[in-house]
Specification:
The protein is of the alpha+beta class and about 575 residues long. Helix content is about 40%, strand content about 10%. Strand 9 and strand 10 form a beta hairpin. The longest helix has about 35 residues.
Amino acid sequence: MFRPLNPKHVFLCFLISFAFFIDPSSLQRLDDAKKKQMREKVREMFYHAYDNYMTYAFPHDELKPLTKSFTDSLSELGNLKLEHLPTDYSGSAVTLVESLSSLAILGNKTEFEKGIHWLSENLTFDIDARVNLFECNIRLLGGLISAHLLAIDPTNRLIQGSYNNQLLRLSEDLGKRFLPAFETPTGLPYAWINLKNGVMENETTETSTSGCGSLILEMGALSRLTGDPRFESAALRALRQLWRMRSSLDLLGTTLDVVTGKWLEYSSSIGAGVDSFYEYLLKAYILFGKEDYWRMFRSAYLASQKYFRHGPWYHEANMWSGKPTYWQLTSLQAFWPGLQVLVGDIAAANSSHREFFHVWERFGVLPERYLLDHQMIHPTEKYYPLRPELAESTFYLYQATKDPWYLDVGETMVKSLNLYTKVAGGFASVRDVTTMQLEDHQHSFFLAETCKYLYLLFDDSFVAKRNYIFTTEGHPIQVMSSWHEKLPESYFSGNWTFSKSGAWESRASALSMQVCPSIAPNSRRPEQHRESACHVPDEKMDHRCWSNKECGVDATTCRQRSCSGVGFCGLWNPL
């Protein structure tokens, strides 16, 4: 039984003195110079992608950078068979909506305000288009809500003219169009909804765990902002029903039937089809303070460590037996170290992040699926669609540790993206990482997440002002006391203050209180390759244990780890 840890409360790792090798002030100056240089490179990346979208694709959904054209992808997202595509749909400016919060973080008030005005006057959801509920929720609804909250925040002063909650009204209209999807015997929503006509006749009843269990942040925020409880109630009912369907091992499968409530795919994991379910349980607890969310997350997290984790890797397992099913890494799993930072499991986050980065270095980018048991790329999933998850975890780990090794990781990623994916018309997805053949698609999440997390890695001034959670699509939502049913105890101490506006603020970033050194062995030259002092391998690679002596020393705190009641190693704080 464990209490959640805010990363700022995790113990400082012991500083290891290498003063006789490196002048610390010289390293600090180098890191500051690197951060400034890399921040500008990421800024250039964002605007190269954004400007080309606005020139060649806007107001359509996404850019095709190789042909400098567009794709109206809202109704295509997740629609592998391209069924029921509208004939007269001319786009919902998805990339513009996704870019608003990034524009705010980059400090571009002019473009942020111009985008809001265009959307206010032109965007409509009264369209005969069948869309994926999950994708529409995290991209459009999440993007609109986040931009609305940024627009009304007086400390940002992003709007110079008048703003009359236009984005909130658009969000409410979209949320109401989601509600018919939840009218099922189980309360689990259909994966697809027609924005104008509701659930279509003979609609598929299959959905994923992520698809019906990752709606609570956006729909919960919408209820808090509008006073209409229907959105949060629908998302919460679905989440609770999904949790009731878990196995006795606290594992959930990948796909299920929303009408019968039966599982269709029993393989469980932290990757595709399940990933954001874990993420939203913890982030909903942070945002809304409901103890139910923490209890669910704690049980699910412990189960993931027991049944999926093998050293630094996470394989898949049967939800009923816990036995391994697939030994594979999927690129979506790279979000996991970032989530572990939020719960305070820094050493485990360090370990798995290192392995993801090794795969990135091997191929130049991160392949969609890598077979761990064969040490090879999946033969049919060799692509890299500019995904953000590794950049996201790198940002979180740097914020938690202030270890400059993560700046080196970010620099490597920026160089790779510019070398392999930058083209005259934007940034293109990689079709095959073994040949670096490109695909004519620039996903909206490249601007919403990949560029944003890389920028925040090198310039964290945005997160230093206020405490935010980021949705699974990278849209910031401010943590406010008025939204909490019961404030988590961890918010009462440390560097937290309560403002007159009712917002929880900190004098420093909520993730910035850890310090870990980096080392450059046997060198007085700080520009040489650095090795992180936090990356200490675990003594038992499978993490199973019978006694404390098998667990070794924690890489973050240098404290002896202990063997938990369910048989794996860690630093535990009993309730």
